[in-house]
Amino acid sequence: xxxxxxxLFPNMYDNFLTESIIKRALDSGKVQINIHxxxxxTVYSNNQVDDYPYGGxxxxxLMCDPIFRAIDTxxxxxxxxxxxxxxxxxxxxxxxYLNDNVNIFVGENDxxxxxxxxxxNLITTGKINGYFIDRQITANxxxxxxRKNYIKNITSGEYAELPEIMIEAYCKKxxxxxxxxxxxxxxxxxxxxxxxxxxxxxxxxxYKKKLQEGEILDIPLEFYKIEFIGFHGCSITSxxxxxxxxxxxxxxxxxxxxxNRFVSENMEQFLSNEDKVMLRSEYRKSIMNFNKMxxxxxxxxxxxxxVKLNEKSISINLKEENVDNWKEDxxxxxxxIPFDNIGFGSRNSxxxxxxxxxxxxxxxxxxxxxxxxxxxxxxMAKLISKIEENKDKQIFIATHSSYIANKLDxxxxxxxxxxxxxxxxxxxxxxxxxxxxxxxxxTLRVILANKVILVEGPADDLIxxxxxxxxxxxxPINDGIDIxxxxxxxxKRYCDIAILVNKNITIVTDNDGNxxxxxxxxxxxxxxxxxxxxxxxxxxxxxxxxPSILAANTINGKISEDFIDGISNNGSMKGKSYEEIxxxxxxxxxxxxxxxxxxxxxxxxxxxxxxxxx
Length: 614
Fold this sequence. Notes:
It contains 22 helices and 26 strands. It is α/β, with parallel strands linked by helices. Strands 12-17-18-5-19-20 form a six-stranded mixed β-sheet, sandwiched between helices. Strands 8, 9, 10 and 11 form a four-stranded antiparallel β-sheet that branches. The two termini are 35 Å apart.
């Protein structure tokens, strides 16, 4: 297979191509990967490949010409061209009911978690990524399907309704009462603010003309307008939105503003006016002393003798700075180590702590993206304590961390999937408290998997993976089936979550010698649920996996030679009795199951294990 990759950053692929599976594929000759710099295909002498977006907006976008030229050069008759592109927003029409305090958004990558935080940021601050929306908005802000249908209709000459974006924030009746009214899509009499991005009718004639001339190829943003309107019916300038919001994105390494504010506030607190005057004086003196240094004076003497601009003599001096510019040269040291040199985890932890501290009394809304980035469990625990101190604020968090979700209460979770948002508000109190007290359980892994098989330990995990591979020639994870080993005491807790989110879940468990007590009574209320499947050995004398799988490979009292060979290390189990082999398996659960997982022949499995993968 030949793969040609077009990129602006070819050196980024150096490490990627020399590691893991890709490296093995290249070394074996099964694939050839060529990296091409898009700049090699531009017609501009300065290698320019980007330009301002058509219709306005912030940033730069790649031009089509160098990309098409590269494709035309490299493409063969049977070449498949794949373009990696932003796919637009996933939400088309959705009402999200929020909690007063903590809101935790979880979902797979590209599920829409970040989009929700962007929406909250936009409606409360008028900004995206720190810039006002009029400098940031592009056609990718529209729902992907809506945009695609619009383009399809205008290119085929059919009627195409101009799409628009509307976001509404409904507030409590006692808050922001000056914006109270019924000018909202639900007709509710409450305070609130709506954001509109829609076609400006003043541009109707020119739009119609360009449409007839075939010049409209995408949503014509140049003819759109942005409006913020209160539910009372009056327009609001985005700079004067009433919400006080702080945004913390732990995935970005932007520390300067927080550090500068920290330095400034501490200087104000701990330096007297006399101290500040002395520091200004010393700063100015240091500049003057630099200019008087013999080396600088000698340099300036040579410049005056040998260099002239516009027939005037030249010298070099430090800039005349504002007397308070010394503050900008101050840096923070942590245990005598410059802040920029400490680990990213520690930086992120301090960044979040500073943001929470700086905004403790001034903001009512906190937006936190991926707070777990580069944090250890210990630092995550500290972070959660700081978040919990902000009980008077409405908090929005996007995370992949089960630990954070568990500790901040699973009932605060909003599951984001395929444009839908589902809440766990109705989760049983006992289950919520269970995971809150034992936050190490991987609850989000269960919530986000396509299908889940819960097992009691690594031996069950390995055997089920091997059975699945024997039958389907691939591991279950390749089909989106996640096998998770958890304490059997937590099985019912996971069932509660599965019922609430309608997740298909299979439990593989031991009967422990008493089916009525350990299966029928224990899982009463769950056995009749369509999305819950409980698999167990029907023979009570085979109380765990080890005797059950041993029995499956024993016929007329004789253990299969293949099975003995499979669990042996250099024939270590040959000549052993039934009880000796069982005893070895029960005391070396991971070892024997790992050997079977890697064994090159098939063995037999108990029926309840086979049922689990159906």
